[in-house]
Design a protein that fits this description.
Elements: H1 8-22, E1 32-37, H2 39-43, E2 53-56, E3 68-72, H3 78-81, H4 85-88, E4 89-94, E5 100-106, H5 117-130, E6 136-140, H6 143-151, H7 156-166, H8 169-173, E7 179-181, H9 189-199, E8 204-207, E9 211-216, H10 219-239, H11 250-260
Parallel strand pairs: 7-8
Antiparallel strand pairs: 1-3, 1-6, 2-5, 3-4, 4-5, 6-9, 8-9
Helix pairs in contact: 5-9, 6-10, 7-10
The structure holds 1,3-dihydroxyacetonephosphate (13P) and zinc ion.
Length: about 270
């Protein structure tokens, strides 16, 4: 059996959490990541018959029975993951009852998965229905996106439009737009259900006055989506109070979409 600490998916979680921490997206224990793993690949590193302990999830995830995820731990700091992955990360499998997580590795101090597991697993289910290739759900508190939440209407058409017109790349990277939820109590099944509902339409979901979710077939896609929103939000926040002389027009946004051959939310243009 190979050493789990050398597994590419553990390496990738280490690299990504460190990156996100240094970008300032994940203060203290802020943020969480879950990545669906390939069972055969995990079996190279772990005995899949050995369950360390079971942890109830508090909701049913029938579609994910038998599926294995690597998930950041609750209360754990992203800045520490690279130095102690076995404590800050866990590998769980959804048990046959659909409501229990079987711990296969990690959370070595007796900890458990992120408090946002409902939003993660429910979003995985929603995205897998749209795209069977989806593997990653990622949540963080990117500074400028969050700042924008306080000064911009929390309306998904208007929010998306502002991001699109702020940065040429946005229409190419997220032509499907950004879903927006109002402020809700985090860590609950309710916010999980609301997030998953948005994930049927969007790969990006703003949690009003809290943070951002991104989904993708791999970390690069989910991370790249968040990164592009955050870049546009930064441009917005450093320029919104200044007189605006130039902007990307709706006709130009259409031209970008046509030029890059992307299917976009036409109803989000004026
Ligand atoms: P966890 O520490 O439980 O992952 O929570 C962090 C967070 O960002 C809550 O939304
Ligand atoms: Zn959060």
């Amino acid at each position: 059996m190979k050493d789990i600490l050398t597994a590419p998916f553990v390496e990738e979680m280490k690299r990504t959490t460190a990156n996100m921490y240094r970008l300032g997206w994940d203060e203290r224990n802020g943020g969480n990541i879950s990545m669906l793993l390939d069972e055969a690949q995990v079996a190279e590193y772990l005995d899949l018959n050995k369950v360390i302990r079971t942890i109830p999830t508090g909701f049913k995830a029938d579609m994910l029975i038998g599926k294995i995820f690597i998930v950041t731990g609750t209360g754990k700091y992203f800045k520490n993951v690279e130095f102690d992955p076995a404590n800050n990360l866990g590998i769980i499998r959804i048990a046959a009852d659909g409501t229990t997580a079987e711990l296969l590795w990690g959370y070595s101090d007796g900890g458990r998965f992120t408090s946002e597991l409902p939003a993660h697993l429910m979003s995985h289910m929603a995205r897998l229905k749209v795209n069977p290739e989806n593997r990653v759900i990622l949540h963080c508190h990117p500074t400028y996106t969050l700042a924008m939440n306080y000064v911009h209407e929390l309306d998904e058409k208007k929010f998306t439009h502002t991001l699109w017109e702020t940065c040429t790349e946005c229409m190419v990277v997220f032509p499907d737009g950004v879903g927006v939820l109002p402020w809700m109590l985090c860590g609950t099944n309710e916010i999980g259900e609301a997030t998953a509902k948005k994930m049927e339409e969007f790969r990006l979901v703003v949690w009003g006055l809290h943070g951002l979710y991104g989904a993708g077939k791999d970390i690069d896609e989910a991370f790249g989506l968040v990164e592009t929103v955050e870049k546009a939000a930064q441009l917005y926040m450093i320029s919104a109070h200044l007189p605006r002389i130039n902007t990307i027009t709706d006709d130009q946004l259409r031209e970008i979409a046509e030029g890059f051959g992307v299917k976009y939310r036409e109803d989000f243009l004026n």
